Each structure stands twice: as C-alpha cells, then as structure tokens.
C-alpha cells in the first residue's frame, strides 16, 4: 500500500492525478462483450476495470425464491484476487455481500419486475482491476448490461462517488483519496435525479453533504452520457451488421448476373451449334435463351432469404 501523501491538492487546485476537484475519471464502455450472456458490458472507470453479465428473465432456482407477481433481481459483485495490490482471498466476504445487496437495491426499482412474474434476472459483476470506486463502476456496467439484455427499465442508473480530502470536496475519489481521505460517499441515481444508492464513510457537515451531492449528480450525468452513447453506438453497429448480413441481392443484381451467365452459356452453345450442326440461321434464334430458367432461380433466392429472417429473430427472443 502506498504511503499517505503530504497533501492531496496542489497550489493550482489540482489533485494528485491532475484532475480538477469536480472532474471524474475517464469512462470507457464496451457493450455486448460476452456471447453467452443475455446482456453484457465491459467498463473502465479510470483504472477500475469491470465486466458485467446479465442473464434472464429466466427460471428461478432454487424455486422457493420465486415471486408469483414479479421477477426477482439478484446481484453478485466479485473482486478478482488479482484486482488489488495485496492479493484478495478468493470468494465471498462481508464487503462483497454488502456491495451486492446495496447495488441490487439500487437497480431493482428501475426494472419493471412486474412484467416477468416467477422469473429471475441475474446480474454478475467481476472486478478485474480495482482503484477505488469499484461499486460505482460495477453499478454503471450492470445498468448498461441490463439494457443490453433488453430488460425493460424506467431508466439507466449512473453512479459516482464524492468525498473529502484536505478539507475539500472532490468528486470520484481515486485510491489514495479513498484510503486516506476524510469522507467517501458513493451515490447512484437515475437520469431524473432520483437517488438509488447513498452510502457514507467518514464525517461531513450537512452543507458539505448537500454540495457534494450536487457535485456527484453532475458526475453521474456525465457517466450517463457515456452509457447512453455506448448503447446507441452498439445498436447502430449491430443494425448495420444485420442489414449487411440479411441484405438480399437486388433484383437488378440477380438478373444482370444471371443473364450474363445465361447469355455466356447461350453464346457458347449457339456458337457450337452454329459450327457443328445447323449453320448460320440458328445464330438469330431467340428460343434458346428463353429456355434457361432465369426467373425461377432469381425468385427462390430473394424469397428464401427474406422469409427466413424474422423466424430466426423471434425464436432467439423467446428463448
Ligand atoms: O471500491 P469501492 O470504493 O467501491 O469500495 P471500498 O471498500 O471503499 O474499497 C476501496 C478500494 O480499496 C477498492 O477499490 C480497492 O482498490 C481497495 N481494496 C483493496 O485493495 N483490497 C480489498 N480487499 C478491498 C478493497
């Protein structure tokens, strides 16, 4: 563990990592990274690296957890042994149990659970690299993965912390600020400003709490923009790919290609016939061309592709 820095904020009002007091770390999001999950997301929040996977709505096991009128939401936060400086003992501990509970509560109300009675929506988040703020990074990733899974939600949840170092409020604490600072307040909120997670470690005055919340709210708004953009980019890309894959050749393409082949065949046949058997008069004969079934092939190919497409998508959706 690094030693406590002498001061956290320099004479220019910048923090040790060069950020301004109200500046969050860079957020990068990649949507749909796991083929076997219904929804997934890889997210970097500064040096934090997390991956989230969502499965469901699906059958509840064990069955006694099933709710007759709504889906249950389960959330599992796990920190990899190699994610922190001193190797973390693998498996659940009190910290991960607490983070899983508060994170589930932060997301659950945003999901229209009443649409899926007797089912489960499972969220798993793995922290691959930790640098303070992993619960907020995990929540941001989980929220995007839920959207990627197509789970109907009232809105995305965006999270970011604020805290106090050198008697000054700062947003999105890094590792040293978290370890040696005076307060750490992770919060999560919806785009309309409803707070769904608020924890506090340390001491703050009511005024500091109020100001800090406003700073964190702005941080969450910035995170939300990145989440939204990542989802939009992902679906725009997917739509492009689907369109390319399913794009049937245009009738003109089919006709011109096949006509070309047909006319080549015909001219070869015609030339052979001309030379060997019949003589000059066959050269002008149109019936040879008409006998080649261009139209039939062309219809089968175009119809075959467009008919099959919606069936495949519907099956996938219901699975
Ligand atoms: O990660 P978050 O800020 O949500 O939770 P925390 O309990 O305040 O942990 C702060 C940081 O301490 C983590 O992000 C890790 O970088 C570090 N940590 C660690 O080094 N070893 C652990 N067993 C737990 C946390």
| Integer tally of domains | 2
Within the largest sheet, what's the order of strands? 1-2-3-5-4
How much of the sequence lies in strands comes to 15-25%
**How would you characterize the largest beta sheet?**
5 strands, mixed
CATH architecture of the largest domain: 2-Layer Sandwich
Written account of the structure:
The chain has 2 domains: 27-244, GHMP Kinase, N-terminal domain (Ribosomal Protein S5, domain 2, 2-Layer Sandwich); 250-318, no CATH class. Helices cover 41% and strands 21% of the residues. It starts with 26 loop residues before the first strand and ends with a helix. It contains 7 helices and 10 strands. It is an alpha+beta fold. Mean pLDDT is 84; it is low at 266-270 and 272-319. The protein binds cytidine-5'-diphosphate. The site of cytidine-5'-diphosphate has 14 residues, from α2, α3 and β8.
């Amino acid at each position: 563990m690094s030693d406590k820095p002498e001061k956290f904020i320099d004479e220019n009002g910048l923090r040790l990592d060069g950020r301004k007091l109200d500046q969050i770390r860079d957020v990068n999001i990649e949507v749909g990274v796991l083929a076997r999950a219904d929804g997934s997301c890889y997210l970097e929040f500064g040096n934090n690296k997390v991956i989230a996977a969502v499965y469901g709505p699906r059958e509840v096991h064990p069955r006694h957890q099933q709710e007759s009128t709504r889906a249950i939401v389960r959330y599992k936060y796990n920190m990899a042994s190699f994610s922190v400086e001193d190797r973390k003992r693998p498996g659940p501990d009190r910290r991960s149990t607490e983070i899983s509970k508060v994170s589930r509560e932060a997301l659950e109300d945003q999901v229209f659970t009443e649409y899926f009675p007797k089912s489960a929506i499972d969220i798993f988040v793995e922290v691959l690299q930790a640098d303070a703020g992993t619960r907020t990074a995990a929540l941001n990733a989980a929220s995007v993965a839920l959207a990627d899974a197509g789970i109907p939600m009232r809105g995305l949840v965006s999270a970011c912390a604020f805290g106090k170092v050198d008697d000054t409020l700062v947003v999105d604490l890094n590792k040293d600020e978290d370890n040696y600072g005076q307060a750490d307040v992770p919060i999560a909120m919806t785009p309309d400003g409803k707070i769904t997670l608020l924890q506090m470690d340390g001491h703050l005055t009511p005024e500091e709490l109020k100001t800090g919340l406003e700073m964190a709210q702005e941080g969450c708004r910035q995170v939300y923009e990145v989440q939204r953009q990542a989802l939009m980019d992902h679906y725009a890309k997917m739509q492009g790919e689907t369109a390319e894959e399913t794009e049937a050749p245009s009738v003109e393409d089919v006709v011109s290609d096949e006509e070309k082949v047909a006319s080549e065949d015909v001219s070869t046949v015609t030339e052979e016939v001309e030379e060997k058997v019949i003589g000059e008069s066959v050269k002008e004969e149109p019936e040879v061309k008409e006998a080649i079934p261009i139209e039939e092939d062309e219809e089968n190919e175009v119809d075959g592709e467009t008919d099959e497409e919606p069936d495949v998508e519907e099956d996938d959706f219901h699975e």
